[in-house]
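Example S7 (structure tokens).
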């Protein structure tokens, strides 16, 4: 019997049940939920970093985006507000489209 002890997507229990398997779950309190979302973000980032092709990379980015939606809500906000903050930062400091790699800065 595999033991997972990790946060899963909402429909995973339904999918497990449809496969004729039994399972144990619990509902997390808000503090533990946020901690588990952070762990999940790290897990998904590692999976993205290990992706061998564009399709897999995009799947993992979608998973990260789903976690970002949930984390924004945990912080009392929305992904739209996060996007607004991102856009403001991009306006002030730029994005990453120009592929600039800073090598060093010389103090005068």
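Recovered sequence:
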């Amino acid at each position: 019997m595999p033991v997972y002890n990790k946060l899963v997507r909402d429909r995973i229990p339904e999918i497990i049940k449809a496969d004729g398997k039994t399972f144990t779950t619990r509902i997390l309190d808000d503090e533990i939920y946020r901690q588990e979302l952070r762990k999940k973000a790290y897990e998904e980032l590692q999976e993205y970093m290990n992706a061998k092709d564009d399709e897999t990379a995009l799947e993992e980015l979608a998973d990260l985006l789903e976690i970002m939606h949930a984390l924004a809500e945990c912080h009392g906000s929305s992904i739209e507000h996060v996007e607004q903050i991102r856009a403001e930062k991009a306006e002030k400091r730029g994005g990453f489209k120009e592929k600039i790699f800073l090598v060093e800065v010389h103090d005068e």
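Notes on this example. Residues 28-93 form one domain.
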